[in-house]
Amino acid sequence: MSIIALGLNHRTAPLSVRERVAFTTERMQQALGEMLRLPQVREGAIVSTCNRTEVYAAVGETGEQEVLRWFPETHGLTDAEVRPYLYVHHESEAIRHLLRVSSGLDSLVLGEPQILGQIKTAYAHAGEMRAVGPLLNRLFQHAFSVAKQVRTDTAIGASPVSVAFAAVSLAKQIFGDFNRKTALLIGAGETIELAARHLHSHGIGRMVIANRTIERAHALAEPLGAYAIALSELGEHLHEADIVITATASTLPILGKGAVESALKRRKRRPIFMVDIAVPRDIEPEVGTLEDVYLYTVDDLEQVIDEGRRSRQEAALQAEEIIDTQVGHFVDWWRVQGGVAVIRELRGHAEQVRDEVLERALRELAHGHSAEDTLRHLAHALTNKLMHEPTVALREASQDGRNELALATRRLFDLPHD
Q: What is the DSSP-derived secondary structure letter of residue 118?
């Protein structure tokens, strides 16, 4: 049995192709069932996100070709429509691929942590379907452990590489503990959503989300335990904010110098950290001249992001070394399992031969044969039955000039060498 990893991702396929081969949650169960019905597929799991769709499988001799045929067919596509974008990894490279994906080394954003959760979800779906057996179960558990080690032993996720992450990281540097702080987020687009999630994960004490469309603000605020307001209410809440992050599509500034000055007075000069991610700007540049205001723009954050990228690239080199070692550990375990299976089969064969010979000896004793003759016959028959097939194989190998089997036999039975 071998392991394969087969699929496509953001590096190999455009979005138009990735969309067509993605598995919805509802479709996943049916797809796993289809794949497991392929004659040579023993175990399987499917990972499907916006950036990748991958199949991990334990397969027999022709299993790879079966999966290669099934993959486009299950989406109603031809082989020609999919094959140019596919990659297939085997054995240790398939193991390495899963470990790299789980650790965020194969992601669009290097080191992003979301992919690990997505792989855990895929593994859970496969588990519910009983699609993973001893081999893939061990592989996925190993991948989760390695991803945790990479996070713990390297700085792969410590440095900001997105505008939202950079904004929250800077706020963390200024305030340290977020527990008693209030954040005001203006807008409700993707960047604000990411910033809100980062703040929430860092334990922000209170979060207010302001948007022109109050329904959109509510939709973003509710799952995060935040409070939604309309843009028209900004003046009433600005003084509450220790952190302000804004990213709207407005063509005119939303926060002027006067409004911020009024808020500072009500705050009794307690500082405000402000990040203006919008282009054009949401906050008048003059706000940056006020005392007790730390104002950053998207250009300021780009410097932080560049440093973060360099830091993550250095951490990625360390992570690759960890993965190299851990691939070796898994392969070692896998090889041992192959030996265990052979030992189990060999012992089962020997016990079957023993039982057959013993049953015959007991019958002979029951018919009055002497114990000495019966024991001699038992020993002779047991030796012949156990040695017949190995002897034939050794003779044939010697005749063909293949000496490795004879050498292995000497080692197995600790026979003296010539």
A: H
Q: Output the CA torsion 178→184→186→189 (10° steps).
A: 40
| Two tokens, residue 270 | 């307690």
Segment (H or E) for 9: strand 2-9
Alpha helices in 367-399 (DSSP H): 371-399
- Of 302, 328, 346, which one is at a domain's C-terminal end? 302
354 and 262: one domain?
no
Catalytic residue among 15, 50, 362, 393: 50
Do residues 42 and 124 share a domain? Answer: yes
Strands 182-186 and 243-246 come out as parallel
With a CB cutoff of 8 Å and minimum separation 6, the contacts of 178 are 171, 172, 199, 202, 203, 204, 205
- The helix/strand/coil state of 39 is coil
The reply to whether 144 and 28 lie within a common domain is: yes
292-324 pLDDT tens trace: 999 999 888 877 788 888 888 899 999 999 999
Please report, for the domain that includes residue 215, its CATH number: 3.40.50.720
Q: Considering the entire predicted model, what is its pTM?
A: 0.64
* Angular region, 273: left φ>0, alpha ψ -120 to 50, beta rest: beta
Residues in the chain where the model's pLDDT stays below 50: none
Chain-centre distance of CA 255, in angstroms? Answer: 42
301: its two tokens: 């954050």
How many helices, marked H, and strands, marked E, lie in the chain?
A: 15, 10
61 is catalytic: no
- Which region holds residue 163: left if phi is over 0, alpha if psi is between -120 and 50, else beta? alpha
What is the residue range of 90's domain? 2-158
What does the block give as tokens for 381? 């028959």
**Residue 190, domain member (yes or no):** yes
The reported pLDDT for the residue numbered 340 is 64
Residue that is last in its domain, among 108, 131, 158: 158
Beta strand segments in 126-226, E = 182-186, 206-211
Residues in Cβ contact with 281 at an 8 Å cutoff, skipping those fewer than 6 apart: 253, 297
- The radius of gyration of the chain from alpha carbons, rounded to an integer in Å, stands at 32
CB-count burial class (<10 Å; 0-12, 13-18, 19+) for 132? buried
148 and 170 housed in the same domain: no
- Phi first, then psi, for residue 155 (nearest 5°) are -100, 30
d(CA 386, CA 14): 60
DSSP annotation string for 238-299: GGG-SEEEE----SS-SB-HHHHHHHHHHTTT--EEEEE--SS-SB-GGGGGSTTEEEEEHH
